[in-house]
Amino acid sequence: MLLDKYGRQLTYLRLSVTDRCNFRCYYCMPQEGMDFAARQELLSFEELYQLSALFCALGVTKIRITGGEPFVRAGIIPFLRRLSQLPGLEEITVTSNGTLTQKHINALQEIGIRKINISLDSLDRERFHRITRRDTFDAVYACIFQLLEAGFDVKLNCVVAEGKNIQDLVPFVELTKNHRLAVRFLEEMPFNGSDSFALPQWSHREILQHLQDHYPALEKLQSEPSSTSVNYRVPGYVGSFGIIPSFSRTFCGTCNRIRLGATGELRTCLYGPPATNLRDLLRLGFSTEQLTQEILEAVSMRAKDGFAAEASQAQSIHTSMSVLGG
């Protein structure tokens, strides 16, 4: 099993299949000048499968497919189909921006994938355009309801920032009145691909207070022990919303995640440096036993929390989220 020195078991792999994205969200990457990985630098689908199989043999039961935008990579559906057959893997989920998801709905259903997270930071077309630098709001919004109609468990991920989308918080909660959606409000993080980051003005506390001012009778929901969000429901609403303290990092003590980037970098914490590069080891001919030992050693050195992991960084932590895989 993947146990760190604090006795925490890692059972959830966030697997990035590409660093490319058809959006340019301000909090993730600059509008121009991104240095994307060359194709040969990416883990091949065969390498992704081999490493996923190894993680499942070590106790991983859930894999979330991330990017970049996963559906920009050709061949993703055959890979997901093969991945779904791995022994010990109980669940595959996907995080997408929703622009390319609609055409894959039938295939995802056939594979058995039922949970999709859609990144959506505004319900206003103009604000959406300013945030993503793309004019595709209508397609994303339509995709959400197509997924719901097809029976998917849909979560909406909204990064909250002053001057960007505060006026969208209440409308997002109102979406949960008649739709079985789970909205997740996230604190802004420093992974924007630039050399600057201002501390977020809207922490989980400010977000919650803002919503409590509008909904005084909020019902707090019970969450799974490893959940990163604190979840709520407005009485009478069919959906729910949650708040993820992604910068405050109050959930670190129960985090069960490990991350594999599209170019093979293994991270035991989003805020920490890569522990090793499994792509390089694979291509050097490391055996399954040697790879296993590398992974176990990386997990054994896992930091206590995101602040300790950040302190161990020798360089700036403003790498683009598209590179880190989320």
From TrEMBL:
Cofactor: binding details: Binds 2 [4Fe-4S] clusters. Binds 1 [4Fe-4S] cluster coordinated with 3 cysteines and an exchangeable S-adenosyl-L-methionine and 1 [4Fe-4S] cluster coordinated with 3 cysteines and the GTP-derived substrate.
SMART domains, per database record: Elp3 (SM00729)
Annotated ranges, domain Radical SAM core: 5-225
Keywords: 4Fe-4S, GTP-binding, Iron, Iron-sulfur, Lyase, Metal-binding, Molybdenum cofactor biosynthesis, Nucleotide-binding, S-adenosyl-L-methionine
Pfam family, one: Radical_SAM
Keyword Iron: yes
GO process terms (BP): Mo-molybdopterin cofactor biosynthetic process
GO molecular function: 4 iron, 4 sulfur cluster binding; cyclic pyranopterin monophosphate synthase activity; GTP 3',8'-cyclase activity; GTP binding; metal ion binding; S-adenosyl-L-methionine binding
Binding site for [4Fe-4S] cluster 2: C252, C255, C269
Catalytic reaction equation(s): GTP + AH2 + S-adenosyl-L-methionine = (8S)-3',8-cyclo-7,8-dihydroguanosine 5'-triphosphate + 5'-deoxyadenosine + L-methionine + A + H(+)
EC number: 4.1.99.22
Pathway: Cofactor biosynthesis; molybdopterin biosynthesis
Reported cofactor(s): [4Fe-4S] cluster
Chain sites annotated for binding [4Fe-4S] cluster 1: C21, C25, C28
Entry binding sites for GTP: R14, R64, T95, K155, R257, I258, R259
Residues that bind S-adenosyl-L-methionine: Y27, G68, S119, M189
Function, in words: Catalyzes the cyclization of GTP to (8S)-3',8-cyclo-7,8-dihydroguanosine 5'-triphosphate.
NCBIfam families per the UniProt record, alphabetical: moaA
Family: Belongs to the radical SAM superfamily. MoaA family.
Assembly description: Monomer and homodimer.
Annotated protein name in UniProt: GTP 3',8-cyclase
Organism: Rufibacter immobilis
Source organism phylogeny: Bacteria, Pseudomonadati, Bacteroidota, Cytophagia, Cytophagales
Gene name tied to this protein: moaA
